[in-house]
Design brief:
- The protein is an all-alpha fold.
- The protein has one domain.
- It contains 3 helices and no strands.
- Helix 1 runs antiparallel to helix 2 and helix 2 runs antiparallel to helix 3.
- The chain is elongated and about 50 Å long.
């Protein structure tokens, strides 16, 4: 597999993770505001996808984003355990 092909696959993975995280964050917010029980599962998915994406493209400027996404992931996991 050529380097160009590997970079193309990595870019496609990054785009897919970004779209997944964005949709999951919107769904999480909607579920939370509507006081639905499933918002926690969406928060875990959104946080995990976001942290994975930022880990793949780590830069020290992303540290705050990683902290925010990890906090959302933690809050969702805690809500799932209590629910």
């Amino acid at each position: 597999m050529t380097l160009r092909r590997r970079l193309a696959l990595l870019s496609a993975l990054a785009v897919a993770l970004a779209v997944l995280a964005a949709i999951a964050f919107v769904v999480t917010g909607g579920g939370f505001l509507a006081q639905q029980d499933w918002w926690a599962a969406a928060a875990v998915a959104a946080g995990a996808a976001s942290v994975l994406l930022m880990a793949l493209y780590f830069n020290r400027w992303l540290s705050a984003g990683i902290l925010i996404s990890a906090t959302i992931l933690y809050a969702g996991a805690q809500a799932l355990q209590q629910g």
